[in-house]
Structure formats: C-alpha cells, structure tokens
Design brief:
- The protein has about 290 residues and is an alpha/beta fold.
- It has one domain: NAD(P)-binding Rossmann-like Domain (Rossmann fold).
- Helices cover about 45% and strands about 15% of the residues.
- An 8-stranded mixed sheet has the order 3-2-1-4-5-6-7-8, with helices on both faces.
- Helix 1 packs across helix 7, helix 3 packs parallel to helix 4 and helix 5 packs across helix 9.
Length: about 290
C-alpha cells in the first residue's frame, strides 16, 4: 500500500488522460498532490505519468473502462489496496454515444458511464473518504442538463433514443446525485459539489456522437470567442478540489458565474430520492447508503 503524508493529498480522478482531466491532473500534481488517474488508454496514461516526474507531486495511472459495474468494483478494490487515504474523489469521465447500446449489465451506455459509474464508485470508496476526512467528492456536470428531464418511465431511452438528450439526462442525473449525496452526508466532513466546465469544443467527449454533432463542435472550435478553453474548465475542477471555500460548502453547482442554482429537476427532492433508489437497484447496493 502506498503511504501518503498528512500534507500530500491523494486525489482520485477519472477521465484524466485527455482534455480538462489531463490538465487538471498535471496541475494538482504540480501543487504536490498524488493523483490516481483513471482512464481507458494505457499508452496515454503511461505518458501522463512519465511527464509528471518533474512535478512536486505524483501521477499514478490505473486502467479501467467504467462502463461495466464489475470493472468499477475491481477498480475500487485496487485503489483501496494501493492507497491508504483518499482526500478527493473526482468524477470527470464521460461520453456521448451516437447510437443506443447497452453495457454487459444491460444499462444504456451513456447513462452507465456518466451517472451509474460515479454513483457506484462513490459507494465503494466512501468508507476511505470518511477515514481521510475532511474529504471531497467533485463531479463534472454540464449546463446542458437544463434541457433534460428525468422520465422515470423511460429513464434509459429504450424508445426514441436521441444522443444529445441522453447525454443531457445523464448530466442532470449527476447533479441530482451530487445534491442528494450532499444531503445524505450532512454532518460529516465529506463535501459533494459539481460544476459546469463550460463548452469545451476541443474535448474528446463527443468522439462517439453523431457526425452532425461532431461537425458542429469542430466548427465552434475555430470560431474566436466561442466556448471555454480546456484550461479554464480544468481550473474550475481544481478549484472545487483545493479551494478552502469548498472545504465546507456542499451540494453546490458551480459555473463560470460562480455558485449557480441548477434546474429544479435536479434539486427536486422526490426526483433525487427516486433516482437514488433506481440507481441503487441497477448497481445492486442498499439504497439506504450512506
């Protein structure tokens, strides 16, 4: 097991081998943290770890495809076996699938990666976060959630799949999850916050999106003044991980304008409770956690 000192924070960061995740991983390591980066690409992960040798902190790569629940559980076991503390758990991995497909668990892919993986990984690592407290859970969300609803009659788009709507709903679910988690952790020293990184045209997030979506994003990338840079998005992530004001603030949604109310769909207590219970059933855990 890797021991860390009281001043050397351990940050678990999913989706850390490209885009804002890669920049954030490097920045956090430069500030002295040990960053356990989770990603699917071994080559990118190894290169990122090698590039961190001159930084004050350290980057360790763990390969995992978060689409399957068995892999999420295996990853959690690996992290618990490797590190003696977790000071921050950052859920940054995400995708947008152009066609509806299901994982081996029978869950729609975008919903599985963007929402259920953070839900399950948090469940598996919460004990370690508690023993490392004060600790933080940070989730990459999106303002696109405002165009979505939680249709509990067809939560996974079994009928009339639309890739952009599926992505928007998955991000709505992540915000509802974050707010509900924060409420359930009230009185502990674990905070839970989420943020909108801005529209980042150069991200790989939409690599599996329909052609028209990818073309639109590429066009936006070359128009001055459109969108947010990857570095700006990464800075928002790092702020939630390190800024003192988010050491005790919890249940917030942060945009470029600061703390901003998310949609009422995300904060509605009945929505949050129902989504929590459905998610627990889908991943096979007791819904009464934590």
């Amino acid at each position: 097991m890797t021991a860390t000192t009281d001043t050397q924070r351990l940050v678990v960061l999913t989706g850390g081998t490209s885009g804002i995740g890669r920049i954030a991983a490097t920045e956090l390591a430069a500030q002295g943290a040990t960053v356990a980066v989770i990603g699917r690409d071994q080559t990118r992960g190894d290169a990122l770890a090698a590039d961190a040798t001159t930084l004050d902190g350290d980057i360790r790569f763990h390969r995992a495809d978060l689409a399957t629940q068995a892999t999420v559980r295996s990853l959690a076991a690996e992290l618990l076996d490797t590190y003696d503390r977790i000071d921050a758990l950052v859920h940054n991995a995400g995708l947008s699938s152009r066609r509806r497909s299901e994982t081996e668990d029978g869950v729609e892919l975008t919903f599985a990666v963007n929402h259920l993986a953070p839900y399950l990984l948090t469940h598996e690592l919460l004990g370690q976060l508690g023993t490392s407290a004060p600790a933080r859970v940070v989730v990459t969300a999106s303002d696109i959630h405002r165009r979505a609803t939680l249709d509990f009659d067809d939560l996974q788009f079994a009928d009339d799949y639309d890739s952009l709507q599926a992505y928007a709903r998955s991000k709505l679910a992540t915000i509802a999850f974050t707010v509900e988690l924060a409420d359930r952790l009230e009185g502990t020293e674990i905070t839970a916050n989420c943020f909108h990184p801005g529209f980042v045209p150069s991200t790989n997030l939409f690599r599996d999106a329909p052609l028209w979506t990818r073309l639109m994003i590429r066009a936006a990338a070359i128009i001055p003044g459109i969108g947010t840079t990857q570095r700006e998005g990464a800075q928002r992530l790092c702020k939630l991980v390190t800024a003192p004001e988010f050491g005790d603030r919890t249940g917030t949604y942060v945009t470029g304008d600061g703390i901003t109310p998310p949609s009422s769909e995300a904060t509605d207590s009945e929505n949050r409770q129902q989504l929590w219970e459905i998610s627990a059933d889908l991943v096979g855990v007791d819904p009464d956690w934590p």
